[in-house]
Amino acid sequence: MKEKKLSGTRKKISALLQKYHADAFPVRKFIPGETPVPVSGKVFDSEELEYIVDAALDGWFTTGRFNEAFERELARFINTKRVVTVNSGSSANLLAFATLTASELGERAIRPGDEVITVAASFPTTVNPAVLYGAVPVFVDVTIPTYNIDTERIEAAITPKTKAIMVAHTLGNPFNADAVVKIARKHKLWLVEDCCDALGSTYNGTHVGVSADLATLSFYPAHHITTGEGGAVFTGNSRLVKIMESFRDWGRDCWCATGCDNTCGKRFGWKLGSLPHGYDHKYIYSRLGYNLKITDMQAALGLAQLKKLPGFIAARRHNFERLKKGLHGFRHKIILPEPTPGSHPSWFGFPVTVKEDAGISRNELIAGLTAAKIGTRLLFAGDLRSQPYFENIKYRVAGDMKNTETILSNTFWIGVAPIVSDEMIGYVISVFKKLMA
Predict the structure, then answer these.
(1) Which of 21, 212, 248, 329 has the least CB density, counted as fewest CB within 10 Å?
(2) 152 and 131 in contact (C-beta within 8 Å)?
(3) What is the pTM of this model?
(4) Closest CA to 393 of 95, 118, 102, 90
(5) How far apart are alpha carbons 334 and 148 in whole angstroms?
(6) Is-catalytic flag, 207?
(7) Domain 308-436's class?
(8) Which residues contact 306 (CB under 8 A, 6 or more apart)?
């Protein structure tokens, strides 16, 4: 009787949430020059609110049944073995790198002083984990107009100290995964793919990250789906999953799921470290770990978003193609982006590089777009070597960084997220035409 009553109450709450969403988030008419054109933003309806509230009504506020479902369904979408959720994409990068420092990996474990090949035209948290663990970033230049690592320069950057390659698929455009995987395997290097901007992108028909040892995702509201704050690491390597979950869950040795006890059947029968025999396995810590878990409400939001992901990806591709077609006539002044051959990007943004002889600078073009209420962003850190916090950080550069330096001075991007409508895209193109003239 109680369960029936509670079920009826939940249905009433669901109906109220549908009405609330319609009242609180009405569709607003786009007015050119008055309505802002965002670079990114979340798209949701009453279903997301219902999922979040449904999770909250369980009264189980940490990781639970919704997270289990979210990890399972996301793994199915990507076609990977395991997904481990965390509280941000930055935490996902941290967790992936930390996993590769585990002592049980033997000679392949990353140690202070080891080198990690990456790029400087990047978001900081793709590189920061290496720095935090005492490794040395080795910067390789990128190519324009793909904005990804120049794969032809990677092997020349490898030394006996090199242990890993950790690099992102820039703005959703996959790098040449075949080439990078081949190099990593040849030299026995770990490969970590930062897919935070690339959920749904494929290379030769395979989702990015699947061929890597570890790959990461972000669910910040700017990304392809959102959990508010959140991220994930995915892998096909079961050995790495166990290490990863330990680092994520305080560094504990116990592998019991949240709310479970004595999965091993000998909770009080362990002898590890210098602890007394029989010390509670739930409180034995085998590594210096963190607490990076998400809540079930966040996972519930992600589960609802995941159902809409194919439509989100299609909208991003549609917006990208419209922008590229609309700006085609200005190729003498700006460099338009190109997908990596063999790839099918789920675009995060539309990068533009202003040519030196364009007659207008990047900053002038951005100022004009901003005045027209069109949002823009620079290509993340531009060149990490120029960032204030990097002044005293040890790194190495392999070859020249000509394209990275160009990006620092001349590149920016505009939005293609599903929140950007066809009317907005048309308006963006018309403003570009006026500014380019």
Answers:
(1) 329
(2) no
(3) 0.96
(4) 118
(5) 18
(6) no
(7) alpha beta
(8) 70, 73, 74, 77, 225
Residue-level pLDDT, tens digit, the chain, 437 residues: 556 666 788 889 988 999 999 999 999 999 999 999 999 999 999 999 999 999 999 999 999 999 999 999 999 999 999 999 999 999 999 999 999 999 999 999 999 999 999 999 999 999 999 999 999 999 999 999 999 999 999 999 999 999 999 999 999 999 999 999 999 999 999 999 999 999 999 999 999 999 999 999 999 999 999 999 999 999 999 999 999 999 999 999 988 877 788 888 899 999 989 999 999 999 989 999 999 999 999 999 999 999 999 999 999 999 999 999 999 999 999 999 999 999 999 999 999 999 999 999 999 999 999 999 999 999 999 999 999 999 999 999 999 999 999 999 999 999 999 999 999 999 999 999 999 98
Sheet strands (E) in 274-410: 334-335, 343-344, 349-354, 377-378, 396-397
Tokens in use for 286? 């085998």
Lookup: tokens for 401: 């960084």
Catalytically annotated residue among 223, 224, 277, 328:
223
Query: Which residues in the chain are classed under CATH 3.40.640.10?
Result: 54-257+287-305
- Backbone φ and ψ for 193, nearest 5 degrees, come out as -100, 120
Alpha carbons within 13 A on the beta-carbon side of 220: 14
Token pair 């970033």: residue: 137
- Structure tokens belonging to residue 315: 């909208």
Quick one: which of 136, 103, 127, 345 has its CA closest to 216?
Answer: 127
Tokens at residue 435, please?
A: 């500014």
Where do you find CATH 3.90.1150.10 in the chain?
308-436
Determine the Cα–Cα distance for residues 30 and 110; give it in Å rounded to an integer. Answer: 51
